[in-house]
Specification:
mainly beta; 117 residues; Rieske Iron-sulfur Protein; globular
Length: 117
């Protein structure tokens, strides 16, 4: 396991920080190790994924840190234009291929705080 990845019970963000039909990125570090997490919301439900495209391993967000969400339903990898369904992380199109989706990270929301479960 990546030593920078949040552990069970660690706070990741406030639920209010994640826009409806949108996504944000949170980065974590431990020494030299790095872990990037993408939090996305659709229909009021927040989901968490590793911020890494399965096609080439690149982060999904733009260079300015913004995550592009198409039609309020699909996360766009800005490196090669693969798209992923917010609800499942499944690849919806592009070079990642239908068999390779985003890696989901289990979360819980307690009193408006998103935590790793």
């Amino acid at each position: 396991m990546n030593p920078a990845a949040p552990r069970s019970g660690d706070a990741l963000a406030n639920e209010a920080d994640v826009p409806e039909a949108g996504a944000i990125v949170r980065d974590f570090a431990s020494g030299e190790a790095r872990f990037s997490l993408l939090l996305a919301k659709r229909d009021g439900v927040v989901r968490a994924y590793e911020n890494r495209c399965p096609h080439a391993g690149a982060p999904l967000e733009r260079m300015d840190g913004r995550v592009l969400v198409l039609q309020g339903r699909f996360i766009l990898c800005t490196a090669h234009a693969a798209t992923f369904a917010i609800e499942t992380g499944a690849c919806a199109g592009g070079p990642a291929g239908s068999e390779r989706g985003l890696t989901q990270v289990p979360i819980v929301i307690e009193a408006g705080v998103i935590k790793r479960s």
